[in-house]
Amino acid sequence: MKKSIYYFGLLGFALASCGGGESESTVAADTAEVCTYSYDSSSTELTWTAFKLTEKIAVNGTFNEINVTAKDSASDMFAVLTGATFDIPVASVNSQDPVRDGKVKNSFFGNMVETASITGTVNSLSASGASIAITMNGVTKDYNGEVTVDGETITVTTTVDIVDFNAQTSLDSLSVVCAEKHTGPDGVNKFWSTVDVAVKTTLVKTCK
Predict the structure, then answer these.
(1) Distance in angstroms (rounded) separating the CA atoms of residues 122 and 132
(2) Percent of the chain, pLDDT > 90?
(3) Among 64, 186, 197, 208, whose CB has the most other CB atoms within 10 angstroms?
(4) Which fold has domain 2-207?
(5) Taking Cα atoms as reference points, which of 171, 168, 165, 112 lies closest to residue 142?
(6) Cα torsion angle, 121, 83, 60, 97, sign
(7) pTM assigned to the model
(8) What is the C-alpha separation between 35 and 14, in angstroms, rounded?
(9) Residue ranges of the domains in the chain?
(10) CB neighbours (10 Å) of residue 151?
């Protein structure tokens, strides 16, 4: 009889010691940080690289104005920019050469329709890649892009082909007004139709 009482006493102690307090997992869940991400327009940079001459010499530039409409915030950094829309006024083109910029505005973009701005939408965005719709010269084209992430900084790179936007006339016009700088030692006036584009933005991370 005494042994039975003894065993029941141990069982009661064991049950009591396993209950009544918070588990480590519960405590961890209660103290874990909850973070959200939001878009910061001041951190966004766009660079483009066009190419001239047969040797494919790079010409780099940017746009001084990039207007993005994104979600206010999200717990997933990619979700902040998925579905975002953008508007890039072509008059803000900047190649570090005012003379060339004037030719790009007037002879290149000036020969397009409905292109006071280049517009578009981020269709999808993840660590594995992006899909972006770009509208220019009245034509919308979807492009896939590569994505790299460094902390809260997301960079998307892609290559745009001007011919996709029915803009051969714009290319030809630019080649004429820039013939001196677009003609190499081989005597060929060459302006490539592909343009490499990179967009980098750093999100604001807030944790509570």
Answers:
(1) 5
(2) 80
(3) 197
(4) Lipocalin (2.40.128)
(5) 165
(6) positive
(7) 0.82
(8) 39
(9) 2-207
(10) 9
